[in-house]
Fold this protein.
Amino acid sequence: MSEMFRALVLDTAQDGKTVVPQFKDLSLDDLPEGDVLVRVAHSTLNYKDGMILNGLGRLVRKYPHVPGVDFAGEVVESADVRYKPGDRVILTGWRVGENHWGGYAQMARVQADWLVPLPDGLDTAQAMAIGTAGFTAMLAVMALEEQGVLPDQDGEVLVSGAAGGVGSVAISILAHLGYRVVASTGRPENADYLKHLGASDIIDRATLAEAPNRPLLSERWLGAVDSVGSTTLAHMLAEMKYHGVVAACGLAGGADLPATVIPFLLRGVKLIGIDSVLCPYEKRVCAWQRLVTDLPAERLDEAMQTVKLSDIVPYGEKILKGAVRGRLVVDVA
Ligand code: NDP
């Protein structure tokens, strides 16, 4: 008989719209196709998981569905030469947990191409404390470096959405690397937390939220990691120093960009897009290695809170209300 395992399964109610979560015992035959079977140890809770748990955003098109955008665990079976039983692996992105069943189950079957080996120096809980948010932050820092923004230069790097997942990991990494970091937040009660992560200054996000009243404002930032988009991104573009670089990661404030091209033309400002979902394998492996060396483990441990899979559902609403700080790790085993 096929091995049974516990999973959180979302299905639609009789109205065909409301999404209902239920814990079920599934068999391996229930899992979708894939070439690697993984025993999931830990997953995490991203904003996107909150949306999926609440049936929002039309992210999931087919029910029943097992959510969980990220997971880390151990290979049980593999039809791909790159992985063998016992290997520890991480999965983030590739629309797993949306188009494909995800990590809120003790077993997952996925494509080998979607996995990366768990790097030495991280356990599965720490990998999920990083998760998609931390991985995205690392990609953003790498983008700044690639474009020539380096710690020994004279100037500051701005991080918006600072108390969020991407923002707080970006601050920790940048500060560890020796950059001078300014954190923009709408939650001043988190100022001590942000300074502890390494921010040297805190600014109120309201100061950036207004669209710039001129195409160019006084030059302030060497680089920026932006999770907010919209007028905030437009404002920071107008405040970049000559040849400054912005890594655009998110849209917490809106998907529009009410900006002019003047900062690009007169200051050679660069706007670099960050995509974690379809990021190529070599870059993924490099980013995970960098997370081992450049994200201090104690910062990660401090930011991490663990909940059992059986308790995850109410946190889906909490993260949508902005009531989760730091990183929530889901103990799936
Ligand atoms: P979080 O919800 O953890 O953090 C977002 C932060 O943005 C909040 O903590 C808050 O920070 C700030 N914020 C929230 N609402 C607003 C608003 N209306 N105006 C201005 N600031 C706001 O999300 P993540 O850090 O996980 O993700 C950040 C963004 O990045 C999201 O848009 C997400 O979709 C995107 N993302 C993109 C990825 C990619 O591959 N490009 C991968 C992962 C995430 P504070 O309270 O400090 O002001």
